[in-house]
Amino acid sequence: MKSTTTTLFAIAAAVLLTMAGCDMSASRKQGAQMRFEETMDQARLETARRSLAEGRYAYARKVLEPCLNSPRRHDDAEQLMAQIQTAHQVYAQLNAYRQDSDDSERVY
């Protein structure tokens, strides 16, 4: 009896250790996935900032959208998107003003 109990205990311990190892592996994969997503988000934010500085508003919005659509909270991404939209509106107004000015100069 004693050897059977010891054997069953050893088997149960081996199964538990194996399951714990699987949990650790899954946890490690989750951690790696989270780090990857955070790194990608930081790269997207930096790329969007550079694109905004270069006046490439459509590209900046396109790069930033995955950050805004992710389940994680990105206050930086929301603020940057507001800056992009404001800059794009100012640029559009300036272009409209220039076109109106060019048209009025041609009349004279």
What's the gist of this structure?
This protein has 108 residues and is mostly helical. It has helices spanning 2-54, 57-69, 75-107.
Can you describe what's shown?
This protein is mainly α and 108 residues long. The protein has one domain. The chain has 3 helices and no strands. Helix 1 packs antiparallel against helix 2 (57-69). The radius of gyration is 28 Å and the shape is rod-shaped. The termini are far apart. The model has no long low-confidence stretch (mean pLDDT 82).
Blueprint of the fold:
Blueprint: H1 2-54, H2 57-69, H3 75-107
Helix pairs in contact: 1-2, 1-3, 2-3
Number of strands: 0
* Radius of gyration over all CA atoms, rounded: 28 Å
Poorly predicted runs: none
Count of alpha/pi helices: 3
Please state the structural category.
mainly alpha
How large is the share of residues in beta strands? under 5%
**Which H/E pattern describes the elements?**
HHH
Task: Write down the overall mean pLDDT.
Answer: 82
What characteristic shape results from the CA principal axes?
rod-shaped
Domain module tally = 1
**Biggest sheet features:** none
Distance between the termini: 111 Å
Helix % is over 70%
